[in-house]
Amino acid sequence: MTTTGNSAAHEIAAAAPEGAHVVKALNSIFGHVLAQDKPLDAFLAGDSAEAKARVVAFLESLDMRPLDAGGLQMASVLEWTGILLMGLAGHGAGFDLALGADFH
Question: ∠94-78-66 over CA atoms, to 5°?
Answer without folding.
Answer: 90
